[in-house]
Design goal:
The complex is a heterodimer. By secondary structure, chain A is of the alpha+beta class. Chain A contains 33 helices and 39 strands. By secondary structure, chain B is an alpha+beta fold. Chain B has a single domain (about 10-15, about 25-240), classed as 3-Layer(aba) Sandwich (Rossmann fold). Chain B is built from five helices and nine strands, in the order αβαβαββββαβββα. In chain B, strands 1-2-9-8-7-4-5 form a seven-stranded mixed sheet, sandwiched between helices. Classes of the chains: A alpha+beta, B alpha+beta.
């Protein structure tokens, strides 16, 4: 068979300076330039169907841009010598690395090319793609391999070759109708655990014994399909056993004295759901039942919100991991019959300047992780036509081996339009992408710790997304919903069909024929088909009478639809392959058979080395002055502008983004939260806000305080842009280490307790949440990380607020009292202090936020910014930069006069505080409206470039806007437009 | 708001004959990522247009009815050879299949190498053949959101031709209306001669990278100002629509 190889290269020979710079960071200094080419491999099973004429046509219509690219075409037949090889010798001095996706990994370009060829009258074309890197410079083979592995190729999903790569056509194999029976009789605990580990079941010994005794009772051995189904359904990822487990919790006081041990009947019940039930807000439509939380938006519509994590996949394959993370959370929104309308993302990475040589084996460098994750999020969200509007990025060496990728999505659905009850006789319909050997064991894999070998072992757990297929799903489901064609819907996420069908058929039971599943390629065994986590698939319960209409819609939107079987009504899960039974399990055992674990948890208050206040001498010893500290804070990666990342996401599409990620006349000041107006609701004034609260630094100091502070931060961010504090709902996402280790779980318990107390104090329900546990690399856990995401109703889209100062002469007020809490603050981290109180919950937080909101609705607030990392000083600097205006503030005016040191007043991170700007004309009305809340006039906005801090008559220090911009914006300082 | 009543039609509905181009007075190819931009932005959709709708579309264009391509729609029109669409001017038959293989202009990867979203100012080119745009009195302020919006030409002569024939429709300018002169980010993608949009010689096929549809009400303006609405682009072009 002849294979044509087409090499498409830019006419402009400049090459990619980014790759050269990254190679130098890798220690390959001799690389001078790198040019990238796209490679296409084309072949046809009928040799006559593909010749020079067809290749030329394909190049002209699809492969080569004649204005900026050139193509080099060669062919290689199976017997003849390759024409390709010789060319490499002639390119003197250049070295070549070629990279291709491994067989089985989604290659969207190849598929689009095959379809396009068919339209051009060349049906049956087989295509594959690859990338060539042409490198100039003196490079040894070992350096080339270092470049390939460290930069150009991710061996989890790709392979590389020094020189021409083998055309990466997937090798098709025969269908494998192979079902294994796995005898459990007589296996002792060690043998059961060996089996669990060998098959990546991630089941513990109690769970294995429960399965063993079930099969002993019915007198047969489980099939691989059954055992895998049980492992998925019982996995931490699917059933959240830690959050349901009975926990024996012992806390120890500051002096190591244990408090009485508490028995907690499930963290989820006791704290998270309990808070929702306690606050009982009438506008909550669905909490913790569906794939996403749902609240009321207006008279006609509800809003759905969900945040997921995709940490383990992103550690191994950052682009694909984050890509499918967005894809997955968007499907959670589709799965509540909502139209996705926006995305959020919160990322935690290792330090970007981490020394390459210190990166542990099996871990990708944090800069590579960040590049891939950011590109993956942008690729999926942008291509779906969804604005990515809110999020944050945190850098800490604790995330080196385990980056965190939180992906959120919001959807809009007409009230009462989400059906949730499958009926007996309904068809089990799969819509969307085809099933392949991708993502197998994702659920059990994410319930295990990573080791340096995980890369090589779990390649199949990582996937590349196909956003355009998902876009078709969005449109199709919206139309099917409006035509009321289905009785239930869910997404195919972790556990694939096994968990989607297993959950939807929990009451009724289901009969499935796996031969009906559309496959990407043959060769999958029944359990692989059943477990595959291939992306972009939804499962629907469809009355037989509606199948035809659904099929017509699926055709219109180019979405594949398959009918796998029916919801039987007998309570059994029966799976067949070519009519032969491969699994028969009662739903009751599948869903209720899991023995809930018991876990032990310990917590040491204050942590080791805890001191209630920084000693006088610590403050005195500091050689850095306040000005230097502030500049360092502004350039700290977690505080500094994230514009280089955020601008690669579309935040405007759908035309409803009213408060954007960047604000002010130069559109580069930081925003506290996003405000969105959903398309289709412009007949009223209502909008909504999205915000986040996250502070893992604080969690290292005090888990309870982290939870309270995260809730407060999400809350005050939402209020700062105009959300009504009485209409805010919360989402919780816990990313933690191994919960079977008591100190990890103890910190998690304290965090949950903080969540409960805060939710009750703020009268705000949790509506959805997710946990990602076992985030450990070679025994090192990540810092326990709680993300609180808030969604709040903005009653009037014409009364929103941004953080940039608007006009000189306006007054600057600090709302909220300053308590001098520096425990777990950025200041403590920068100065290496260990002591200090961690921030507590503010007194009566709702009252102050209500007062601020009322003032905002009355038009009294010109700008508003919350105080978080870096406290007052950072917030003020950001407001000045955003508005390109100066300011003068007096620290003596701050509420809370027990504070002795300017550091504390400038940088402490006490909760419940905002800086606001008010015109002199509004002063009286504003002060009156804040009469019963802590509020202090600190100073005024100045027309100059100066930001001046004083303490009474004493001038402390000043900064210029230029200095702020240099620190906060870094290299991008001079890019502001207009 | 602009005076039209739009229908959203899927290309599969056109292929199935459920709708025909001739039923409409104006055609808009909107933004998005047709076919995921695999093989290059707009390339695959451009093939669809050429294979399935070549004649219908040629008739539509010939009739003088306006065609507007925004972002991916612009990329598609360029890659299908409908913009700048010299072919049919040279006495060649309008029905002749435009060959994308010898295009003179293209939209390629941004100079910065990645997708970027930011607000930009656009000025209508004073002498543009798309004369309906003349009624836009002020600048237009709206966002770009693309990775392949870098307008490039096949040599200086191609650029001269475009400018001489007045086929440039929009250029990137600063807030005062001064040409960007290639300065980033006023010109956000490195486009040659700050070109943000072009038209065909008859002036009825217009394409631009930025998104005027994202600024149809002042409340969408990130600078909290009024005026410079993208709506003006739709108002202007719709004035040429006819059945």
């Amino acid at each position: 068979m002849t294979v044509f190889r087409i090499e498409v290269t830019a006419k402009d020979q400049t090459g990619d300076p980014g790759i050269v710079a990254a190679a130098h960071r890798l220690g390959v200094d001799t690389l001078q330039s790198c040019r990238k080419s796209r490679l296409y491999f084309l072949t046809h099973h009928k040799p006559a169907a593909l010749g020079a004429e067809q290749i030329e046509r394909l190049c002209a219509a699809l492969l080569v841009d004649p204005v900026v690219e050139t193509a080099l075409i060669s062919s290689q037949s199976e017997n003849g010598p390759s024409e390709v090889d010789s060319r490499f010798d002639t390119a003197a001095g250049d070295q070549v690395i070629e990279v291709a996706l491994r067989p089985g990994v989604t290659d969207v370009s190849a598929r689009v090319l095959e379809q396009g060829a068919s339209e051009l009258g060349i049906p049956g074309l087989q295509a594959a793609t690859a990338t060539q890197f042409r490198l100039t410079g003196v490079l040894s083979e070992s350096e080339l391999r270092r470049l390939a592995r460290g930069l150009l190729c991710n061996e989890t999903i790709e392979s590389y070759s020094l020189g021409p790569i083998e055309p990466p056509f997937g090798r098709s194999s025969e269908a494998r109708n192979y079902v294994e029976k796995i005898p459990l009789v007589g296996l002792d605990e060690a043998a059961l655990m060996l089996l669990s580990n060998e098959r990546t079941l991630s089941l513990d010994v109690r769970e294995m014994k429960e399965i063993q005794s079930y099969y002993e009772e019915i007198g047969r051995a489980p099939t691989d399909v059954e055992l895998e189904t049980l492992a998925q359904t019982w996995s931490e990822h699917c059933v959240h056993k830690t959050f349901k487990a009975e926990v024996e919790f012992t806390s120890y006081g500051p002096h190591g004295r244990p408090n009485p041990t508490e028995k907690i009947q499930g963290l989820l019940n006791t704290y998270i759901q309990a808070a929702t039930e306690k606050v009982k807000r009438p506008w909550v439509r669905s909490a913790f039942i569906d794939d996403a939380g749902i609240i009321e938006f207006d008279d006609k519509y509800d809003l759905a919100f969900k945040v997921e994590t995709h940490n383990h996949p992103s550690a191994l394959e950052p682009f694909g991991g984050a890509n499918t993370g967005i894809g997955g959370v968007v499907r959670d929104i589709i799965a509540v019959s909502a139209r996705p309308i926006a995305c959020t993302d919160v990322l935690c990475f290792g330090p970007q300047n981490f020394p390459q040589e210190a990166v542990p084996a099996g871990v990708l460098h944090p800069a590579r992780v960040e590049d891939g994750v950011v590109a993956g999020i942008g690729d999926y969200g942008n291509k779906l036509g969804l604005p990515t509007v809110n999020g944050t990025v945190i850098y800490d060496s604790g995330y080196l081996g385990n980056p965190l990728v939180f992906c959120g999505a919001v959807g809009l659905l007409p009230k009462g339009s989400h059906p949730t009850a499958p009926q007996k006789g309904d068809r089990v319909v799969v819509l969307g992408g085809r099933t392949g050997r991708d993502g197998i064991h994702g659920a059990t894999f994410s319930s295990a710790e990573l080791t340096q070998d995980t890369h090589m072992e779990s390649g199949s757990a990582v996937q590349i997304g196909d956003p355009i297929t998902e876009k078709g799903l969005i449109e199709l489901v919206e139309h099917a919903r409006d035509a009321r064609l289905y009785n239930a819907i869910t997404d195919c996420g972790a556990g694939g069909l096994s968990s989607a069908v297993g959950e939807m058929g929990e009451e009724l039971g289901a009969d499935i024929e796996l031969m009906e599943v559309a496959l990407k390629y043959p060769g999958l065994t029944p359990w692989e088909i059943w477990l595959s986590e291939a992306q972009e698939r939804m499962v629907l319960a469809v009355p037989p009478a509606n199948l035809e209409r659904l099929g017509a819609l699926a055709n219109l939107w180019d979405v594949e639809m398959r009918d796998l079987g029916r919801f039987s009504g007998d309570g059994w899960l029966r799976v067949r392959y070519n009519d032969r039974p491969v699994a028969e399990l009662p739903m009751k055992f599948l869903h209720e058979g899991l023995p809930l674990p018991r876990r032990e948890a310990h917590y040491h208050e204050g942590g080791p080395g805890w001191k209630s206040q920084p000693a006088e001498n610590e403050l005195g010893r500091t050689s850095l002055n306040e000005r230097t500290v502030l500049l360092q804070m502004l350039s700290h990666p977690s505080v500094a502008s994230k514009e280089r990342i955020v601008r690669t996401y579309d935040h405007e599409v759908r035309g409803g983004t009213l408060v954007r990620p960047f604000v002010g006349p130069y559109m580069d000041g930081p925003s506290d939260a996003a405000v969105l107006k959903p398309l289709g609701t412009w007949d009223n004034e209502r909008a909504f806000a999205l915000s986040v609260g996250i502070n893992p630094l604080l969690g290292k100091r005090d888990s309870y305080s982290m939870a309270v502070s995260a809730v407060d931060e999400a809350f005050r961010n939402a209020v700062a842009v105009g959300a009504d504090p009485d209409r805010i709902a919360l989402l919780d996402n816990f990313c933690w280490g191994n919960p079977t280790i008591p100190d990890r779980l103890g910190a998690l318990v304290r965090t949950c307790q903080g969540c409960y107390d805060a939710a009750v104090a703020y009268n705000a329900p949790f509506i959805s949440g997710k946990d990602s546990l076992y985030n450990e690399f070679e025994g090192h856990p990540i810092p326990g990380t709680l993300l609180i995401s808030a969604i709040g109703i903005v009653p009037d889209m014409r009364h929103t607020c941004t953080s940039d100062f608007k006009d000189s002469g306006n007054l600057i007020y600090l709302l909220g009292e300053t308590r001098g809490e520096i425990g777990g603050s950025l200041l403590s981290q920068l100065l290496g202090w260990e002591g200090g109180e961690a921030p507590a919950m503010p007194d009566d937080p709702l009252a102050r936020y209500r007062a601020l909101h009322a003032a905002m609705r009355s038009g009294l607030i010109q700008s508003c910014h919350d105080l978080s990392e870096g406290g007052l000083a950072v917030a003020l600097a950001e407001m000045c930069l955003g508005g390109r205006l100066g300011a003068k503030v007096d620290l003596l005016a701050i509420c809370g006069n027990d504070l002795f040191h300017p550091y504390v007043q400038l940088f402490c991170e006490t909760n419940g505080r905002h800086l606001v700007e008010v015109t002199p004309a509004d002063r009286g009305r504003f002060e009156e409206s804040m009469a019963s809340s802590p509020c202090a006039l600190l100073g005024e906005v100045l027309p100059s470039e100066q930001v001046l801090f004083t303490k009474g008559p004493e001038r402390l220090f000043k900064l210029t806007l230029d200095e702020i911009a240099t620190s906060w914006k870094g290299d991008a300082k001079d890019e502001a437009s207009n | 708001m602009a005076g039209g009543s739009p229908s959203i039609v899927h290309i599969n509905q056109l292929r199935a004959g459920a709708f025909r181009f001739s039923e409409f007075g104006m055609l808009v190819l909107p933004g998005g990522f047709s076919y995921g931009d695999a093989l290059g932005a707009g390339v695959r959709l451009a093939l669809d247009l050429q294979v399935f709708f070549h004649e219908e579309l040629a008739e539509f264009v010939e009739s003088g009815r306006p065609v507007l391509g925004i972002c991916n729609g612009f990329q598609t029109l360029v890659k299908a050879g409908l913009l700048p669409g010299y072919g049919r001017e040279h006495g060649g038959s309008a029905k002749r299949r435009p060959s994308s293989g010898n295009r003179d202009v293209t939209l390629t990867t941004n100079t910065r190498g990645h997708f970027e979203c930011r607000w930009v100012h656009l000025a209508v080119e004073p002498e543009t053949k798309a004369d309906c745009l003349a009624q836009i009195e002020d600048l237009v302020f709206c966002p770009v959101a693309h990775g392949e919006g870098n307008f490039q030409v096949n040599g200086d002569e191609s650029l001269r031709q475009l400018e001489k024939r007045n086929l440039v429709a929009f250029r990137y300018v600063d807030a005062r209306g001064e040409r960007a002169g290639g300065r980033y980010p006023i010109n956000p993608n490195g486009s040659v001669a700050d070109i943000a949009g072009i038209c065909n010689p008859a002036g009825n096929v217009i394409g631009l990278m930025p998104h005027p549809e994202d600024h149809i009400e002042s409340i969408q303006n990130p600078l909290s100002k009024s005026g410079r609405l993208g709506l003006s682009v739709f108002r202007a072009i719709i004035s040429r629509a006819s059945l």
